[in-house]
Specification:
- There is one protein chain.
- The protein is built from five helices and two strands; from the N terminus they run αααααββ.
- It has a single domain, classed as Alpha Horseshoe (Serine Threonine Protein Phosphatase 5, Tetratricopeptide repeat).
- Helices cover 60% and strands 12% of the residues.
- By secondary structure, it is α+β, with helices and mostly antiparallel strands.
- About 14% of the residues have low confidence.
- The longest helix has 14 residues.
Length: 97
């Protein structure tokens, strides 16, 4: 049953739906498929640069993949808004000011 749900989510999302890419990216992240997760979170960010959770989840995927420097840069790389990085228990979190 769960595998059927996952296989449905793996299908190509609407090419303009940032939320669909984000959801599929979280599925890839849950399955430890970090490259596909990073690709989907990046696509989410391209479609909606203000989708802060995509930056955070992409950072987690980079960290899990062992590319911690890229993970930190992914979160710091937010574009036009002012963000504060709060380091808590070794995990980066973003808060909007």
């Amino acid at each position: 049953m769960i595998n059927t749900a996952y296989s449905t989510l793996y299908k190509a999302p609407d090419p303009n739906d940032a939320g669909a890419y984000f959801v599929r990216g979280t599925v890839y992240l849950d399955k430890s498929d970090y490259d596909n997760a990073i690709a989907d979170f990046t696509k989410t960010m391209e479609l909606d640069p203000r989708f802060a959770e995509a930056y955070h989840h992409r950072s987690i995927a980079y960290n899990e993949k062992g590319e911690k420097g890229k993970g930190i840069r992914a979160e710091i790389g937010l574009t036009t808004r002012i963000w504060v990085i709060v380091v808590s228990y070794g995990r980066l979190k973003l808060t909007n000011r």
